[in-house]
Automatic annotation (TrEMBL):
It comes from Pseudomonas nabeulensis. Pfam families: ADH_N (PF08240), ADH_zinc_N (PF00107). It comes from the Bacteria. This is Zinc-binding alcohol dehydrogenase family protein. Residues 10-317 form the Enoyl reductase (ER) domain. InterPro entries: ADH-like_C, ADH-like_N, ER, GroES-like_sf, Lipid_raft_assoc_Zn_ADH, NAD(P)-bd_dom_sf. GO terms for molecular function: oxidoreductase activity.
Length: 319
């Protein structure tokens, strides 16, 4: 089969479009014919060597949608989608014509989603779902999402709305504010870090119950916007991984910081999440993805370069 594969890390030049043997599933595994596979920034960072636990040689790619062509009888011919830490790191991933994985690692693809749409959602939606779950976002929760225009932030807004939370979006640019307001979300334009607490308290009197920072830059500033016993969920940090946290202010509010890392979850654990929120697409409660950039897998090398250069396009590989 055709696949993208790298045998060394540190440079995208190590990634090649090659012929490899089609994987053979074990008794408890499935073989999925890939119809679409998403390209995430973490896939690019993987080839660049940012994940030292990756074993080589390796086919990258976490998110996929396709059809089960080998495996348990009950799954044969089923349209499925999936994601998880295994793919691209400890086992070959989805940037290929086929992928094998645990039979428990696939979820039924929502019928309202095309293969490309489904392949675009795995990492951002499971990350957002985990953040809302672990930070306790339920009906009536006052939630601020920082970086609400990004893939994870957008997913968090949509999922929190279904949960009945009171949602406030925060973005940088005026045009982003207009877009989110047009979608029906209360939105603020981020100013300086010193202003954030006042901005949040002007909307949520007494502070937010949960602040979800998807950018990695607002953790210290977010403490001033917390209500008593509130939580800050984070999925990123500065390059050096260090921030100066105002611990005195945090503990006086009884606040907590919740780290969200999608790479902690296996494909089987992610499949449970996908089944939980996937039905909302078929029920018309979640927006269908738009603006996807579909690229033949054979042209995938340039797409990796594009993402590494800062492209915000959501790229979907079509084998």
């Amino acid at each position: 089969m055709k696949a993208l594969q790298f045998s060394a890390t540190g440079d995208l030049a190590h990634l090649g479009f090659v012929d490899v043997a089609t994987p053979v599933p074990a008794a408890d595994e499935v073989l999925v014919q890939i119809k679409a596979a998403g390209l995430n920034p973490s896939d690019v960072k993987n080839v660049l060597g940012r994940f030292p636990y990756t074993t080589l040689p390796r086919i990258p790619g976490r998110d996929f949608a396709g059809i089960v062509v080998e495996g348990p009888q009950a799954l044969l011919g089923q349209e499925v989608w999936g994601t998880g830490r295994d793919l691209g790191f400890f086992a070959d991933g989805s940037h290929a014509e086929f992928v094998k994985l645990s039979a428990q690692g696939v979820a039924h693809k929502p019928t309202h989603l095309s293969f490309s749409q489904a392949a675009s959602l795995g990492v951002p939606y499971t990350t957002a779902w985990d953040a809302l779950e672990r930070s306790g976002v339920t009906k009536g929760t006052r939630l601020l999402v920082i970086g609400a225009n990004g893939a994870v932030g957008s997913a968090a807004l949509a999922l929190a709305k279904i949960r009945g939370a009171h949602v406030l979006a925060a973005v940088r640019r005026p045009e982003q504010v207009e877009v989110l307001q047009g979608q029906g979300f209360d939105t603020i334009a981020l100013g300086t870090p010193d202003d954030l607490g006042a901005q949040v308290n002007a909307v949520f009197k007494g502070g937010a119950d949960v602040i979800f920072d998807t950018t990695g830059f607002w953790l210290p500033a977010a403490v001033a916007g917390l209500a008593p016993f509130a939580r800050i969920a984070i999925i990123a940090a500065p390059v050096d991984g260090l921030v100066q946290l105002p611990a005195l202010a945090l503990y006086r509010k009884g606040g907590s910081v919740v780290g969200i890392n999608s790479l902690l979850y296996t494909c089987a654990q992610c499949a449970v999440m996908l089944e939980q929120f996937g039905r909302f697409f078929d029920e018309g409660l979640l927006p269908l993805p738009t603006g996807l950039r579909e690229v033949p897998l054979a042209e995938g090398l340039q797409s990796y370069e594009d993402v590494n250069s800062g492209s915000a396009d959501k790229i979907i590989f079509l084998p």
